[in-house]
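User: Hey, my collaborator sent me this sequence without any context and asked if I could get a structure. I don't really work with proteins. Can you help?
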Amino acid sequence: MEQREVIRFFDRCAPFWDGDAVRNEAVISTILDNAGIRAGIDVLDVACGTGILFPDYLGRGVASLTAIDISPEMVKLARQKFPQVKVLCGDVEQTAFVQQFDTVMLYNAFPHFPEPARLIERLSQWVKPGGRLSVAHGMSREKLVQHHAGSASRVSIDLLEEHELAKCFAPWFDVDVIISNDEMYQVCGEKRNETLAQTPPRD
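Assistant: No problem. I've predicted the 3D structure and written it out in structure-token form, which is a compact way to encode the shape of the chain:
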């Protein structure tokens, strides 16, 4: 999977993204609850697209919302729709944020990152101790794999089995949510104190 191809793919999808989006409100509410989205917290939305979840964060009264996406066209639309939100264009794995966050959310985007364990390691540094990291999808793992088997096959990998993803979290997070059913997929964990975090083995 080449990053330039990922960018081109999502740039092409951007004009149709909102019209093609399907929301299951009950599932989204569960995902947000599990991720600890509530009033007064600082949120980072990774691979935010056109801002599908922005109204949900803002509706829950978060203190601040920062978002990032690698697709310039997705970012352009998100900024137009939500000028009050700080939306960055870039590679989250190469971005130095100026703060840590209470919740880092990755929604409907995880398979588009080719090295899942590395991504979790990078994201862990932007979660406050006691904060939460959430990887979630608003459909089943099986349906998502089928969905990506078409035009998105060149810009995605198969979604990790949920317990395998939990293992990626383990060096930095106490995993307390592991869900994979017919409606949704989510793994969440709470960031341990920096002094207690383990260093993962290196090859």
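In plain terms: The helical segments are 3-20, 25-34, 54-59, 72-81, 116-124, 141-148, 162-169. You can pass these tokens on to your collaborator as they are.
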